[in-house]
Design a protein that fits this description.
185 residues, ten-stranded antiparallel β-sheet, 2 helices, 10 strands, globular
Amino acid sequence: MKLSKNFGIATFAIAISLAAIEAKPTQAAIVNYNFAVNATAGDNPGVYVGSFSFDDSNLNGIGEESLDVSNGLLSVVFDYLGTQYTELDDFDYPTGVAPLVSFQDGKLLGLSYLVEDQFFIGGDLDNPYTGGNQFYSIVSADLLSANEVGTVSYSKVPEPLTIFGTAIATFVGLWSNRQKKTTHI
């Protein structure tokens, strides 16, 4: 009887966890990423952190895609040299084409984010409207003055429902294990 009760509880916990994981691709959601800039050269070496979020409802996961402030509700926060920058500080912000995040077949390529007289986060300087993982110091908004001084790494922030489902499954597993030990004593 106890075995079937524990099996039922474990099955329920696994079902909740799988439902949390499976719900992700079919529903549009606000997706959050953290990023870290590792500046190893130039006048301001150090590690600087930021985050961005976007609505993924306009992504289909096929080919090259990008989301900006107009079609992806993109928001950016970046702490650099004691100042907090947001999407409003991007050089192209009023036009709605930048900042932006780029994807290839659903995989994040990176951010494209330019703050005049400070920095540029992106990829290839010849194509500034494609995100990437390079960090440049710049003078004015002229990318010809850009000097690559570091790299950018990105990490997706897990969705709360996935964390909740995993926590429930872990708790039920530990509780069941404890129950087994107390019945064998």
